[in-house]
Automatic annotation (TrEMBL):
Name of this chain's protein: Pyridoxal 5'-phosphate synthase subunit PdxT
Superkingdom, natural source: Bacteria
Organism classification: Bacteria, Bacillati, Actinomycetota, Actinomycetes, Micrococcales
GO molecular function, one term: pyridoxal 5'-phosphate synthase (glutamine hydrolysing) activity
Sorted UniProt keywords: Glutamine amidotransferase, Hydrolase, Lyase, Pyridoxal phosphate
Subunit composition and interactions: In the presence of PdxS, forms a dodecamer of heterodimers. Only shows activity in the heterodimer.
Length: 199
């Protein structure tokens, strides 16, 4: 089984763990740098991106994780996870740093307050022939997509909410809270592709 980490410093860890186990992954909750050893993929969950950033620095996870992602570790970021992966953040908290890796600019909290949360089905042909289910909870908006990145899905009005770049997938929303597993399945697919190209 592929060994998949979930960054477990803060935020919505449990639902990712459930989806990944259902898909047959061996899940590691990442709280210390040594938990990164031997991972074949990682999920950066939703939560509060500035808090996760702070905790990554306190626990010495930020730099090794940044290196792993830059060297091709398959990575799925949801909501706060997308914010961490964006090369630039609008409305960042004071002193907030990003891991980077996705050539996009995101704006935090662009979909309004918690009570303005909503759910939609999105076309994401790269992920599935059938629409995927997306739950938006105070998510970031992808304001611009640079040359290195590409759009995976957008809302009907054109707002971009899912992006990819090589080994990285970033989502403005939460697939995991509705049990939507196809993005995680894609992540696992990337580990298999990487295994066979490493031999
Ligand atoms: N508003 C949060 C942030 O800026 C993200 C919300 C979420 O992950 N559900 O980090």
């Amino acid at each position: 089984a592929p060994r998949v980490g979930v960054l477990a410093l803060q935020g919505g860890v449990r639902e990712h763990e459930t989806v990944l186990r259902r898909l047959g992954a061996d899940v590691v909750l990442v709280r210390r740098p040594e938990h990164l050893e031997g991972l074949e993929a990682i999920v950066l969950p939703g939560g509060e991106s500035s808090a996760i950033d702070k905790l990554m620095r306190i626990f010495g996870i930020r730099e090794p994780l940044q290196q792993l992602i830059a060297s091709g570790l398959p990575t799925l970021g949801t909501c706060a996870g997308l914010i961490l992966l964006a090369d630039a953040i609008h409305d960042a908290a004071p002193g907030q740093l990003q891991l980077g890796g996705l050539d996009v600019v995101v704006r935090r909290n662009a979909f309004g307050a918690q009570n303005q949360s909503f759910e939609v089905d999105l076309d994401a042909p790269e992920i599935s022939e059938e629409p995927v289910h997306a739950v938006f909870i105070r998510g970031p908006l992808v304001e611009s997509v640079g040359e290195q990145a590409h759009v995976i899905a957008a809302l009907d009005d054109g707002r971009v909410v899912a992006v990819g770049q090589g080994n990285i997938i970033g989502l403005s929303f939460h697939p995991e809270v509705a049990g939507e597993g196809r993005f995680h399945a894609k992540l696992i697919e990337l580990t298999v592709a990487r295994r066979s190209s490493a031999t």
